[in-house]
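Hello K.,

You asked for the raw outputs rather than the summary table, so here they are, unedited. I folded two proteins back to back in the same session to keep the settings identical. This is the first:
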Amino acid sequence: MVQKRPKAAPARKSEAAPKRRGRPRAYEPDVALGKALDLFRRDGFAATSLDELSAATGMNRPSLYGAFGDKRELYIKAYARYRADARAAMGDIFRNELPIRQRLKRIFAVALDIYLSGEQGPRGCFTVMTAASEAIADPDIRAMVLEGFVELDKAFAGCFRIAKEKGELPASADPETLAQLASATIHTIALRARAGVPRRQLEQIVNGAIEVMLPSPSPLEGEGRGGG
Protein backbone atom coordinates (compact mmCIF):
# COMPACT_ATOMS: atom_id res chain seq x y z
CA MET A 1 0.00 0.00 0.00
CA VAL A 2 1.38 3.30 -1.07
CA GLN A 3 1.45 5.80 1.69
CA LYS A 4 0.21 9.25 0.82
CA ARG A 5 2.68 11.91 1.35
CA PRO A 6 1.53 14.58 3.73
CA LYS A 7 0.55 17.73 1.96
CA ALA A 8 3.21 20.34 2.15
CA ALA A 9 2.29 23.28 4.30
CA PRO A 10 1.37 26.31 2.23
CA ALA A 11 4.27 28.63 1.78
CA ARG A 12 4.17 31.48 4.22
CA LYS A 13 3.95 34.83 2.72
CA SER A 14 7.06 36.80 3.39
CA GLU A 15 6.45 39.42 6.00
CA ALA A 16 6.61 42.91 4.68
CA ALA A 17 9.76 44.64 5.75
CA PRO A 18 9.08 47.53 8.13
CA LYS A 19 8.99 50.88 6.44
CA ARG A 20 12.18 52.82 6.92
CA ARG A 21 11.64 56.05 8.68
CA GLY A 22 13.43 59.23 7.77
CA ARG A 23 16.92 59.54 9.11
CA PRO A 24 16.74 61.10 12.57
CA ARG A 25 18.54 64.35 13.18
CA ALA A 26 22.05 63.88 14.47
CA TYR A 27 22.07 67.30 16.10
CA GLU A 28 20.05 69.46 18.46
CA PRO A 29 19.09 72.78 16.84
CA ASP A 30 19.45 74.74 20.10
CA VAL A 31 22.88 73.26 20.77
CA ALA A 32 24.01 73.89 17.20
CA LEU A 33 22.79 77.49 17.37
CA GLY A 34 24.69 77.96 20.62
CA LYS A 35 27.88 76.70 18.98
CA ALA A 36 27.40 79.10 16.07
CA LEU A 37 26.75 81.92 18.54
CA ASP A 38 30.03 81.22 20.35
CA LEU A 39 31.92 81.31 17.04
CA PHE A 40 30.31 84.51 15.76
CA ARG A 41 30.77 86.18 19.12
CA ARG A 42 34.45 85.32 19.16
CA ASP A 43 35.40 86.03 15.53
CA GLY A 44 32.60 88.17 14.11
CA PHE A 45 30.63 87.60 10.92
CA ALA A 46 33.21 88.10 8.17
CA ALA A 47 36.01 86.12 9.84
CA THR A 48 33.81 83.09 10.52
CA SER A 49 33.78 80.64 7.62
CA LEU A 50 31.12 78.10 6.73
CA ASP A 51 33.69 75.35 7.24
CA GLU A 52 34.27 76.57 10.80
CA LEU A 53 30.53 76.73 11.44
CA SER A 54 30.14 73.23 10.07
CA ALA A 55 32.92 71.90 12.28
CA ALA A 56 31.62 73.67 15.40
CA THR A 57 28.01 72.55 14.97
CA GLY A 58 28.76 69.07 13.62
CA MET A 59 26.52 69.79 10.63
CA ASN A 60 27.46 69.74 6.97
CA ARG A 61 26.64 72.71 4.77
CA PRO A 62 23.33 71.36 3.37
CA SER A 63 22.16 70.64 6.92
CA LEU A 64 23.16 74.11 8.05
CA TYR A 65 21.23 75.70 5.20
CA GLY A 66 18.24 73.46 5.84
CA ALA A 67 18.11 74.26 9.55
CA PHE A 68 19.10 77.93 9.68
CA GLY A 69 19.32 79.37 6.17
CA ASP A 70 22.43 81.00 4.79
CA LYS A 71 25.31 82.40 6.84
CA ARG A 72 23.65 85.79 7.31
CA GLU A 73 20.41 84.21 8.53
CA LEU A 74 22.35 82.01 10.94
CA TYR A 75 24.17 85.10 12.25
CA ILE A 76 20.91 86.95 12.83
CA LYS A 77 19.41 83.94 14.63
CA ALA A 78 22.54 83.65 16.75
CA TYR A 79 22.32 87.36 17.65
CA ALA A 80 18.65 86.99 18.57
CA ARG A 81 19.57 84.03 20.78
CA TYR A 82 22.29 86.10 22.49
CA ARG A 83 19.84 88.90 23.24
CA ALA A 84 17.26 86.45 24.60
CA ASP A 85 19.86 84.82 26.87
CA ALA A 86 21.09 88.20 28.14
CA ARG A 87 17.52 89.35 28.75
CA ALA A 88 16.81 86.20 30.75
CA ALA A 89 20.00 86.60 32.80
CA MET A 90 19.32 90.21 33.76
CA GLY A 91 15.54 90.51 33.64
CA ASP A 92 14.90 89.54 37.26
CA ILE A 93 17.39 92.11 38.55
CA PHE A 94 15.79 94.90 36.54
CA ARG A 95 12.36 93.89 37.84
CA ASN A 96 13.45 93.49 41.47
CA GLU A 97 12.82 96.77 43.27
CA LEU A 98 16.03 96.87 45.27
CA PRO A 99 17.49 100.20 46.43
CA ILE A 100 18.88 101.83 43.30
CA ARG A 101 22.55 101.71 44.29
CA GLN A 102 22.32 98.01 45.17
CA ARG A 103 20.39 97.26 42.02
CA LEU A 104 22.91 98.99 39.76
CA LYS A 105 25.77 97.10 41.37
CA ARG A 106 24.04 93.79 40.75
CA ILE A 107 23.22 94.65 37.14
CA PHE A 108 26.81 95.59 36.37
CA ALA A 109 28.14 92.53 38.21
CA VAL A 110 26.00 90.18 36.11
CA ALA A 111 27.04 92.05 32.96
CA LEU A 112 30.71 91.53 33.88
CA ASP A 113 30.05 87.82 34.42
CA ILE A 114 28.68 87.63 30.88
CA TYR A 115 31.41 89.72 29.24
CA LEU A 116 34.32 88.01 30.99
CA SER A 117 33.11 84.48 30.22
CA GLY A 118 34.64 82.34 27.50
CA GLU A 119 36.90 79.31 27.29
CA GLN A 120 39.37 81.18 25.09
CA GLY A 121 39.24 84.48 26.94
CA PRO A 122 36.73 87.26 27.61
CA ARG A 123 34.14 87.53 24.84
CA GLY A 124 32.63 90.91 25.62
CA CYS A 125 29.22 91.82 24.24
CA PHE A 126 27.90 90.48 20.92
CA THR A 127 26.23 93.82 20.19
CA VAL A 128 29.27 95.98 20.85
CA MET A 129 31.95 93.66 19.46
CA THR A 130 30.40 92.39 16.21
CA ALA A 131 26.77 93.35 15.56
CA ALA A 132 27.53 97.09 15.63
CA SER A 133 30.04 96.60 12.80
CA GLU A 134 27.60 94.60 10.68
CA ALA A 135 24.88 97.18 11.36
CA ILE A 136 26.66 99.67 9.11
CA ALA A 137 25.76 97.79 5.93
CA ASP A 138 22.87 95.56 7.00
CA PRO A 139 19.57 97.33 7.80
CA ASP A 140 18.07 94.29 9.56
CA ILE A 141 21.02 93.95 11.93
CA ARG A 142 21.07 97.72 12.43
CA ALA A 143 17.41 97.59 13.47
CA MET A 144 18.21 94.82 15.99
CA VAL A 145 21.14 96.77 17.43
CA LEU A 146 19.10 99.96 17.82
CA GLU A 147 16.23 98.00 19.32
CA GLY A 148 18.66 96.56 21.86
CA PHE A 149 19.94 100.02 22.78
CA VAL A 150 16.41 101.32 23.28
CA GLU A 151 15.44 98.25 25.31
CA LEU A 152 18.41 98.68 27.64
CA ASP A 153 17.78 102.42 28.04
CA LYS A 154 14.14 101.77 28.93
CA ALA A 155 15.07 99.11 31.47
CA PHE A 156 17.49 101.45 33.23
CA ALA A 157 15.06 104.37 33.02
CA GLY A 158 12.47 102.25 34.81
CA CYS A 159 14.93 101.64 37.63
CA PHE A 160 15.75 105.32 38.01
CA ARG A 161 12.09 106.33 37.76
CA ILE A 162 11.15 104.03 40.64
CA ALA A 163 14.10 105.29 42.67
CA LYS A 164 12.99 108.87 42.11
CA GLU A 165 9.45 108.05 43.21
CA LYS A 166 10.86 106.50 46.40
CA GLY A 167 12.90 109.61 47.14
CA GLU A 168 16.27 107.95 46.45
CA LEU A 169 17.01 110.55 43.78
CA PRO A 170 16.59 114.33 43.91
CA ALA A 171 13.59 115.91 42.23
CA SER A 172 15.87 117.33 39.54
CA ALA A 173 17.10 113.89 38.45
CA ASP A 174 16.25 112.89 34.87
CA PRO A 175 15.68 109.09 34.65
CA GLU A 176 16.19 109.03 30.87
CA THR A 177 19.54 110.80 31.02
CA LEU A 178 20.74 108.62 33.89
CA ALA A 179 19.63 105.56 31.91
CA GLN A 180 21.77 106.56 28.95
CA LEU A 181 24.76 107.01 31.25
CA ALA A 182 24.16 103.55 32.72
CA SER A 183 23.86 102.01 29.23
CA ALA A 184 27.05 103.74 28.15
CA THR A 185 28.80 102.22 31.16
CA ILE A 186 27.57 98.77 30.10
CA HIS A 187 29.02 99.26 26.62
CA THR A 188 32.32 100.58 28.00
CA ILE A 189 32.97 97.64 30.29
CA ALA A 190 31.98 95.23 27.50
CA LEU A 191 34.59 96.71 25.18
CA ARG A 192 37.30 96.81 27.82
CA ALA A 193 36.51 93.28 29.00
CA ARG A 194 37.08 91.99 25.47
CA ALA A 195 40.40 93.86 25.35
CA GLY A 196 41.55 92.00 28.46
CA VAL A 197 41.16 94.64 31.14
CA PRO A 198 41.07 92.84 34.52
CA ARG A 199 37.80 92.61 36.39
CA ARG A 200 39.11 94.69 39.28
CA GLN A 201 39.72 97.65 36.98
CA LEU A 202 36.33 97.19 35.35
CA GLU A 203 34.69 97.24 38.77
CA GLN A 204 36.50 100.52 39.51
CA ILE A 205 34.93 101.99 36.36
CA VAL A 206 31.53 100.71 37.47
CA ASN A 207 31.89 102.18 40.97
CA GLY A 208 32.98 105.52 39.54
CA ALA A 209 30.04 105.59 37.14
CA ILE A 210 27.60 104.78 39.93
CA GLU A 211 29.07 107.60 41.99
CA VAL A 212 28.51 110.01 39.09
CA MET A 213 24.92 108.86 38.65
CA LEU A 214 24.19 108.64 42.39
CA PRO A 215 26.55 111.03 44.13
CA SER A 216 26.86 110.54 47.86
CA PRO A 217 26.00 113.65 49.87
CA SER A 218 29.02 115.62 51.05
CA PRO A 219 29.58 116.02 54.81
CA LEU A 220 28.35 119.64 54.63
CA GLU A 221 25.21 118.56 52.77
CA GLY A 222 24.63 115.86 55.33
CA GLU A 223 24.95 118.37 58.18
CA GLY A 224 22.58 120.73 56.38
CA ARG A 225 19.98 118.02 56.04
CA GLY A 226 20.36 116.98 59.64
CA GLY A 227 20.26 120.55 61.02
CA GLY A 228 17.04 122.15 62.23
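The second followed immediately with the same parameters:
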Amino acid sequence: MSKFINWKSNWLSGNFQLFADGVQKGMITFETWKSNAESMLDDKNYQFVNEGFWQSRTKVIDRETGGVVAIITYDSWKSKAVISLKSGAQYEWKSTNLWRSQWTVSNYKDEHIIYNSSSRSGALSSDTDNELLIIAGLFIKQIYNKQAIVLIVCFMPIITMTALRQ
Protein backbone atom coordinates (compact mmCIF):
# COMPACT_ATOMS: atom_id res chain seq x y z
CA MET A 1 0.00 0.00 0.00
CA SER A 2 1.42 3.39 -0.98
CA LYS A 3 1.50 6.18 1.55
CA PHE A 4 1.97 9.86 0.67
CA ILE A 5 2.91 12.35 3.38
CA ASN A 6 3.72 16.05 3.16
CA TRP A 7 5.66 17.88 5.83
CA LYS A 8 6.53 21.37 6.94
CA SER A 9 9.58 22.13 9.02
CA ASN A 10 10.69 25.02 11.16
CA TRP A 11 14.15 26.02 9.96
CA LEU A 12 15.26 27.33 13.34
CA SER A 13 14.11 24.46 15.57
CA GLY A 14 14.16 21.69 12.97
CA ASN A 15 10.72 20.47 14.11
CA PHE A 16 8.46 18.78 11.57
CA GLN A 17 4.70 18.62 11.13
CA LEU A 18 3.50 15.64 9.04
CA PHE A 19 0.31 15.75 6.95
CA ALA A 20 -1.72 13.18 5.01
CA ASP A 21 -4.59 14.46 2.87
CA GLY A 22 -4.18 17.92 4.44
CA VAL A 23 -4.71 16.62 8.00
CA GLN A 24 -1.87 16.64 10.53
CA LYS A 25 -1.01 13.02 11.32
CA GLY A 26 2.28 13.41 13.12
CA MET A 27 5.21 15.50 14.26
CA ILE A 28 8.87 15.42 15.21
CA THR A 29 9.98 17.77 18.00
CA PHE A 30 13.69 18.31 18.68
CA GLU A 31 15.14 19.32 22.06
CA THR A 32 16.39 22.90 22.11
CA TRP A 33 20.16 22.45 22.42
CA LYS A 34 20.40 18.76 21.54
CA SER A 35 19.52 16.60 18.59
CA ASN A 36 17.33 14.26 20.63
CA ALA A 37 13.69 14.21 19.52
CA GLU A 38 10.18 13.05 20.33
CA SER A 39 7.99 11.88 17.46
CA MET A 40 4.51 10.70 16.67
CA LEU A 41 2.93 9.38 13.48
CA ASP A 42 -0.57 7.95 13.50
CA ASP A 43 -0.63 5.92 16.74
CA LYS A 44 3.13 5.33 17.08
CA ASN A 45 5.30 7.37 19.46
CA TYR A 46 9.10 7.23 19.42
CA GLN A 47 11.95 8.94 21.21
CA PHE A 48 15.29 9.42 19.43
CA VAL A 49 18.29 9.58 21.79
CA ASN A 50 21.73 10.35 20.35
CA GLU A 51 24.90 8.76 21.67
CA GLY A 52 28.58 9.21 21.03
CA PHE A 53 30.78 12.00 19.82
CA TRP A 54 29.32 13.84 16.85
CA GLN A 55 26.12 11.84 17.38
CA SER A 56 27.44 8.69 15.72
CA ARG A 57 24.55 6.53 16.98
CA THR A 58 20.91 7.05 17.83
CA LYS A 59 18.71 4.76 19.92
CA VAL A 60 15.05 4.72 18.92
CA ILE A 61 12.79 3.99 21.88
CA ASP A 62 9.13 2.98 21.67
CA ARG A 63 7.40 5.41 24.05
CA GLU A 64 4.66 2.89 24.86
CA THR A 65 6.91 0.02 25.93
CA GLY A 66 10.11 1.90 26.81
CA GLY A 67 12.11 -0.61 24.77
CA VAL A 68 14.76 0.09 22.15
CA VAL A 69 13.24 -0.77 18.75
CA ALA A 70 16.07 0.40 16.49
CA ILE A 71 19.61 1.73 16.39
CA ILE A 72 20.69 4.26 13.76
CA THR A 73 24.39 4.33 12.87
CA TYR A 74 25.74 7.24 10.83
CA ASP A 75 28.49 7.39 8.21
CA SER A 76 28.96 11.15 7.97
CA TRP A 77 31.68 10.97 5.32
CA LYS A 78 29.37 9.22 2.87
CA SER A 79 26.06 10.86 3.92
CA LYS A 80 24.62 7.46 4.72
CA ALA A 81 23.05 5.85 7.75
CA VAL A 82 21.89 2.36 8.65
CA ILE A 83 18.67 1.78 10.57
CA SER A 84 18.91 -1.57 12.37
CA LEU A 85 15.55 -2.75 13.69
CA LYS A 86 15.17 -4.96 16.76
CA SER A 87 13.90 -7.70 14.39
CA GLY A 88 17.31 -7.76 12.70
CA ALA A 89 16.12 -6.07 9.51
CA GLN A 90 18.37 -3.30 8.19
CA TYR A 91 17.55 -0.28 6.07
CA GLU A 92 19.86 2.25 4.47
CA TRP A 93 19.26 6.01 4.53
CA LYS A 94 21.03 7.56 1.56
CA SER A 95 21.09 11.02 0.02
CA THR A 96 20.46 10.82 -3.71
CA ASN A 97 21.70 14.26 -4.76
CA LEU A 98 24.48 16.68 -3.87
CA TRP A 99 22.24 19.15 -1.98
CA ARG A 100 20.57 16.43 0.12
CA SER A 101 17.15 17.57 -1.04
CA GLN A 102 16.31 14.04 -2.12
CA TRP A 103 16.96 10.86 -0.16
CA THR A 104 15.71 7.33 0.34
CA VAL A 105 15.24 4.75 3.06
CA SER A 106 15.30 1.23 1.67
CA ASN A 107 16.03 -2.40 2.38
CA TYR A 108 16.68 -2.82 -1.38
CA LYS A 109 14.07 -5.59 -1.49
CA ASP A 110 10.46 -4.69 -0.90
CA GLU A 111 10.38 -1.56 1.27
CA HIS A 112 11.29 1.87 -0.12
CA ILE A 113 10.60 5.43 0.98
CA ILE A 114 11.46 8.32 -1.33
CA TYR A 115 11.78 11.85 0.15
CA ASN A 116 11.89 15.18 -1.71
CA SER A 117 12.35 18.51 0.07
CA SER A 118 12.62 22.22 -0.51
CA SER A 119 13.82 24.69 2.10
CA ARG A 120 11.03 24.19 4.68
CA SER A 121 8.69 21.58 3.26
CA GLY A 122 8.62 18.36 1.37
CA ALA A 123 6.85 15.16 0.52
CA LEU A 124 7.47 11.46 0.74
CA SER A 125 6.15 8.42 -1.01
CA SER A 126 6.32 5.12 0.83
CA ASP A 127 5.40 1.58 -0.10
CA THR A 128 5.58 0.57 3.58
CA ASP A 129 3.32 1.47 6.48
CA ASN A 130 6.24 1.31 8.92
CA GLU A 131 5.91 4.61 10.82
CA LEU A 132 9.33 4.16 12.43
CA LEU A 133 11.10 4.10 9.05
CA ILE A 134 9.11 7.09 7.77
CA ILE A 135 9.98 9.19 10.84
CA ALA A 136 13.59 7.96 10.97
CA GLY A 137 14.17 9.17 7.41
CA LEU A 138 13.23 12.73 8.40
CA PHE A 139 15.11 12.55 11.71
CA ILE A 140 18.34 11.45 9.98
CA LYS A 141 18.02 14.27 7.44
CA GLN A 142 17.79 16.79 10.27
CA ILE A 143 20.84 15.29 12.01
CA TYR A 144 22.89 15.79 8.83
CA ASN A 145 21.52 19.34 8.47
CA LYS A 146 22.63 20.18 12.03
CA GLN A 147 26.08 18.70 11.44
CA ALA A 148 26.47 20.83 8.30
CA ILE A 149 25.53 23.97 10.24
CA VAL A 150 28.06 23.16 12.96
CA LEU A 151 30.80 22.70 10.36
CA ILE A 152 29.95 26.03 8.72
CA VAL A 153 29.96 27.81 12.08
CA CYS A 154 33.31 26.23 13.01
CA PHE A 155 35.05 26.99 9.71
CA MET A 156 33.59 30.45 9.03
CA PRO A 157 36.09 32.24 11.33
CA ILE A 158 38.99 30.43 9.65
CA ILE A 159 37.75 31.33 6.19
CA THR A 160 37.11 34.94 7.24
CA MET A 161 40.57 35.34 8.80
CA THR A 162 42.24 33.82 5.74
CA ALA A 163 40.36 36.16 3.43
CA LEU A 164 41.21 39.21 5.52
CA ARG A 165 44.97 38.42 5.49
CA GLN A 166 45.15 38.54 1.70
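The two ends are 59 Å apart (CA to CA).

Happy to rerun anything if the numbers look odd on your end.

Regards,
P.
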